[in-house]
Amino acid sequence: MENKVTSHGTEIRKLTPARCNIFVVTRNNRTILVDTGISFDRGRIENALARKAVIPEAVVLTHTHFDHAGNAAWLAREYGAEIVVQKAESESLAAGDTSIPEGTHAVTKGLVSLGKKMSHAFRYEPCIADQVFDDSFNLNRYGINGYVIHTPGHSPGGSTLVIDDEIAIAGDSIIGTMPGNPFPPFADDVEELLRSWKKILHTGCTTFLPGHGKPVSREDLISEFERRTSSVSA
Fold first, then answer.
1. Where are the alpha helices (DSSP H) in 56-138?
2. Is-contact 124 96, C-beta < 8 A?
Protein backbone atom coordinates (compact mmCIF):
# COMPACT_ATOMS: atom_id res chain seq x y z
CA MET A 1 0.00 0.00 0.00
CA GLU A 2 1.31 3.45 -0.89
CA ASN A 3 1.29 6.05 1.86
CA LYS A 4 -1.95 7.99 2.19
CA VAL A 5 -1.90 11.69 3.03
CA THR A 6 -5.11 13.58 3.74
CA SER A 7 -5.79 17.11 2.55
CA HIS A 8 -5.03 18.22 6.14
CA GLY A 9 -1.59 16.62 6.13
CA THR A 10 -2.20 13.48 8.17
CA GLU A 11 -0.07 10.60 6.90
CA ILE A 12 -1.19 6.97 7.06
CA ARG A 13 1.22 4.18 6.15
CA LYS A 14 1.39 0.45 6.65
CA LEU A 15 4.08 -0.47 9.16
CA THR A 16 5.34 -3.78 7.77
CA PRO A 17 4.01 -7.00 6.24
CA ALA A 18 2.21 -8.90 9.02
CA ARG A 19 -0.78 -11.18 9.58
CA CYS A 20 -2.98 -8.09 9.72
CA ASN A 21 -2.53 -4.55 8.45
CA ILE A 22 -0.84 -2.40 11.11
CA PHE A 23 -1.20 1.29 10.30
CA VAL A 24 0.95 4.20 11.45
CA VAL A 25 -1.00 7.47 11.65
CA THR A 26 1.11 10.63 11.98
CA ARG A 27 0.28 14.32 12.19
CA ASN A 28 2.67 17.10 13.27
CA ASN A 29 5.21 14.52 14.50
CA ARG A 30 2.70 12.78 16.76
CA THR A 31 1.97 9.14 16.04
CA ILE A 32 -0.45 6.38 16.88
CA LEU A 33 -0.66 2.75 15.73
CA VAL A 34 -3.80 0.98 14.62
CA ASP A 35 -3.75 -2.71 15.60
CA THR A 36 -0.71 -4.73 16.64
CA GLY A 37 -0.49 -7.97 14.70
CA ILE A 38 -0.07 -11.50 15.97
CA SER A 39 2.49 -12.29 18.67
CA PHE A 40 4.88 -14.25 16.44
CA ASP A 41 5.20 -11.21 14.14
CA ARG A 42 6.71 -9.23 17.03
CA GLY A 43 10.30 -9.39 15.75
CA ARG A 44 9.53 -7.87 12.37
CA ILE A 45 7.23 -5.29 14.00
CA GLU A 46 9.97 -4.26 16.45
CA ASN A 47 12.49 -3.97 13.60
CA ALA A 48 10.08 -1.87 11.54
CA LEU A 49 9.38 0.48 14.44
CA ALA A 50 13.13 0.97 14.98
CA ARG A 51 13.91 1.33 11.27
CA LYS A 52 11.20 3.94 10.77
CA ALA A 53 11.84 5.64 14.14
CA VAL A 54 8.22 5.18 15.22
CA ILE A 55 7.40 5.66 18.89
CA PRO A 56 3.60 5.46 19.22
CA GLU A 57 1.76 7.48 21.84
CA ALA A 58 -1.17 5.11 21.59
CA VAL A 59 -2.43 1.93 20.00
CA VAL A 60 -6.05 1.91 18.86
CA LEU A 61 -7.47 -1.58 18.46
CA THR A 62 -10.13 -2.06 15.81
CA HIS A 63 -11.02 -5.25 17.71
CA THR A 64 -9.29 -7.80 19.94
CA HIS A 65 -8.94 -10.98 17.90
CA PHE A 66 -5.53 -12.61 18.40
CA ASP A 67 -4.12 -11.43 15.05
CA HIS A 68 -4.90 -7.78 15.84
CA ALA A 69 -4.29 -7.52 19.59
CA GLY A 70 -1.48 -10.03 20.06
CA ASN A 71 1.19 -7.39 20.72
CA ALA A 72 -0.87 -4.81 22.62
CA ALA A 73 0.60 -5.63 26.05
CA TRP A 74 4.14 -5.59 24.65
CA LEU A 75 3.66 -2.20 22.94
CA ALA A 76 2.25 -0.74 26.15
CA ARG A 77 5.14 -2.12 28.16
CA GLU A 78 8.01 -1.30 25.77
CA TYR A 79 6.88 2.03 24.34
CA GLY A 80 4.54 3.38 27.01
CA ALA A 81 1.72 3.51 24.47
CA GLU A 82 -1.81 3.95 25.74
CA ILE A 83 -4.14 1.17 24.62
CA VAL A 84 -7.56 2.20 23.33
CA VAL A 85 -10.39 -0.31 22.93
CA GLN A 86 -14.17 -0.36 22.70
CA LYS A 87 -15.92 -1.35 25.92
CA ALA A 88 -17.51 -4.57 24.62
CA GLU A 89 -14.08 -6.16 24.19
CA SER A 90 -12.13 -4.63 27.08
CA GLU A 91 -12.64 -7.70 29.26
CA SER A 92 -11.57 -10.03 26.44
CA LEU A 93 -8.42 -7.96 26.01
CA ALA A 94 -7.74 -8.13 29.74
CA ALA A 95 -8.09 -11.92 29.59
CA GLY A 96 -6.09 -12.31 26.37
CA ASP A 97 -8.87 -14.47 25.03
CA THR A 98 -11.34 -13.28 22.38
CA SER A 99 -13.73 -15.74 20.75
CA ILE A 100 -13.17 -16.26 17.04
CA PRO A 101 -16.04 -14.95 14.88
CA GLU A 102 -18.60 -16.97 12.98
CA GLY A 103 -18.24 -17.66 9.25
CA THR A 104 -20.37 -15.75 6.75
CA HIS A 105 -20.48 -18.49 4.09
CA ALA A 106 -20.24 -22.28 3.92
CA VAL A 107 -16.44 -22.56 3.69
CA THR A 108 -15.67 -20.17 6.54
CA LYS A 109 -18.40 -21.69 8.70
CA GLY A 110 -16.57 -25.00 8.35
CA LEU A 111 -13.25 -23.38 9.26
CA VAL A 112 -14.76 -21.82 12.36
CA SER A 113 -16.15 -25.18 13.44
CA LEU A 114 -12.63 -26.60 13.30
CA GLY A 115 -11.12 -23.53 14.93
CA LYS A 116 -13.36 -23.71 17.96
CA LYS A 117 -11.92 -27.13 18.76
CA MET A 118 -8.49 -25.54 19.23
CA SER A 119 -9.51 -22.24 20.82
CA HIS A 120 -6.45 -22.28 23.10
CA ALA A 121 -4.33 -21.49 20.04
CA PHE A 122 -6.00 -18.10 19.68
CA ARG A 123 -5.10 -16.74 23.11
CA TYR A 124 -2.59 -13.91 23.53
CA GLU A 125 -0.86 -11.91 26.25
CA PRO A 126 -3.50 -10.18 28.41
CA CYS A 127 -3.59 -6.39 28.33
CA ILE A 128 -5.40 -3.81 30.44
CA ALA A 129 -6.61 -0.92 28.29
CA ASP A 130 -5.88 2.67 29.30
CA GLN A 131 -8.84 4.13 27.42
CA VAL A 132 -12.15 2.28 27.11
CA PHE A 133 -14.90 3.98 25.12
CA ASP A 134 -18.55 3.31 24.40
CA ASP A 135 -19.87 5.02 21.25
CA SER A 136 -16.91 7.17 20.18
CA PHE A 137 -13.44 8.34 21.14
CA ASN A 138 -11.70 11.59 20.15
CA LEU A 139 -8.19 11.16 18.75
CA ASN A 140 -7.25 14.81 19.34
CA ARG A 141 -5.84 13.56 22.65
CA TYR A 142 -2.92 12.24 20.58
CA GLY A 143 -2.70 15.13 18.14
CA ILE A 144 -4.64 13.30 15.42
CA ASN A 145 -7.58 15.05 13.77
CA GLY A 146 -10.11 12.24 13.92
CA TYR A 147 -12.21 9.96 16.04
CA VAL A 148 -13.11 6.32 16.61
CA ILE A 149 -16.64 4.96 16.32
CA HIS A 150 -18.15 1.68 17.47
CA THR A 151 -18.86 -0.50 14.43
CA PRO A 152 -19.84 -3.97 15.68
CA GLY A 153 -20.76 -6.97 13.56
CA HIS A 154 -17.47 -8.66 12.81
CA SER A 155 -17.03 -8.69 16.59
CA PRO A 156 -18.90 -7.04 19.49
CA GLY A 157 -16.35 -4.26 20.00
CA GLY A 158 -15.44 -3.63 16.38
CA SER A 159 -14.27 -0.06 15.83
CA THR A 160 -13.42 2.24 12.93
CA LEU A 161 -11.09 5.24 12.94
CA VAL A 162 -12.16 8.25 10.89
CA ILE A 163 -9.19 10.45 9.93
CA ASP A 164 -9.82 14.00 8.69
CA ASP A 165 -13.27 12.86 7.47
CA GLU A 166 -11.48 11.35 4.47
CA ILE A 167 -10.01 7.97 5.36
CA ALA A 168 -11.61 5.24 7.48
CA ILE A 169 -9.49 2.50 9.06
CA ALA A 170 -12.05 -0.23 9.54
CA GLY A 171 -10.27 -3.34 10.81
CA ASP A 172 -12.07 -6.53 9.80
CA SER A 173 -15.41 -4.83 9.30
CA ILE A 174 -14.21 -4.50 5.70
CA ILE A 175 -11.89 -6.84 3.83
CA GLY A 176 -9.53 -5.99 0.97
CA THR A 177 -8.33 -9.42 -0.11
CA MET A 178 -11.03 -10.04 -2.72
CA PRO A 179 -11.21 -7.31 -5.40
CA GLY A 180 -14.73 -5.95 -5.72
CA ASN A 181 -16.03 -7.87 -2.69
CA PRO A 182 -15.25 -6.09 0.59
CA PHE A 183 -17.60 -8.20 2.72
CA PRO A 184 -15.64 -10.10 5.40
CA PRO A 185 -15.63 -13.90 5.44
CA PHE A 186 -16.09 -13.88 9.21
CA ALA A 187 -18.64 -11.96 11.28
CA ASP A 188 -20.59 -12.65 14.46
CA ASP A 189 -23.67 -10.72 13.29
CA VAL A 190 -24.16 -9.95 9.60
CA GLU A 191 -27.17 -7.65 10.10
CA GLU A 192 -25.26 -5.69 12.74
CA LEU A 193 -22.30 -5.44 10.40
CA LEU A 194 -24.44 -3.98 7.63
CA ARG A 195 -25.75 -1.37 10.08
CA SER A 196 -22.13 -0.55 10.87
CA TRP A 197 -21.36 -0.23 7.15
CA LYS A 198 -24.15 2.35 6.91
CA LYS A 199 -22.55 4.23 9.81
CA ILE A 200 -19.11 4.04 8.16
CA LEU A 201 -20.47 5.31 4.83
CA HIS A 202 -22.25 8.13 6.65
CA THR A 203 -18.83 9.52 7.70
CA GLY A 204 -18.31 10.63 4.09
CA CYS A 205 -14.90 8.96 3.84
CA THR A 206 -13.74 8.11 0.33
CA THR A 207 -11.06 5.55 1.14
CA PHE A 208 -11.41 2.57 3.47
CA LEU A 209 -8.38 0.76 4.86
CA PRO A 210 -9.20 -2.82 5.88
CA GLY A 211 -7.60 -5.10 8.44
CA HIS A 212 -6.43 -7.41 5.65
CA GLY A 213 -5.65 -6.68 2.03
CA LYS A 214 -5.70 -3.51 -0.03
CA PRO A 215 -7.67 -0.25 0.30
CA VAL A 216 -11.34 -0.37 -0.66
CA SER A 217 -13.02 2.42 -2.63
CA ARG A 218 -16.24 4.10 -1.61
CA GLU A 219 -17.84 2.90 -4.84
CA ASP A 220 -17.07 -0.75 -4.10
CA LEU A 221 -18.33 -0.45 -0.54
CA ILE A 222 -21.58 1.20 -1.61
CA SER A 223 -22.12 -1.37 -4.36
CA GLU A 224 -21.73 -4.31 -1.97
CA PHE A 225 -23.80 -2.60 0.72
CA GLU A 226 -26.68 -2.00 -1.71
CA ARG A 227 -26.49 -5.56 -3.03
CA ARG A 228 -26.66 -7.10 0.42
CA THR A 229 -29.30 -4.79 1.88
CA SER A 230 -31.55 -5.18 -1.16
CA SER A 231 -31.36 -8.99 -0.86
CA VAL A 232 -32.23 -8.77 2.82
CA SER A 233 -35.28 -6.58 2.19
CA ALA A 234 -36.45 -8.57 -0.84
1. 66-69, 72-79, 90-95, 106-115
2. yes
Its pTM surpasses 0.85:
yes
Other beta carbons within 10 angstroms of residue 196's beta carbon come to 24
How far apart, in whole angstroms, are the C-alpha atoms of residue 57 and residue 234? 47
The average pLDDT across 144-162 equals: 98
Q: What is the pLDDT of residues 79-109, one digit of tens each?
A: 999 999 999 999 999 999 999 888 888 878 7
SS3 101: coil
Ordered DSSP codes for 25-65: EEETTEEEEE----GGGHHHHHHHHHHTT---SEEE-S---
Quote the CATH superfamily of domain 4-233. Answer: Ribonuclease Z/Hydroxyacylglutathione hydrolase-like (3.60.15.10)
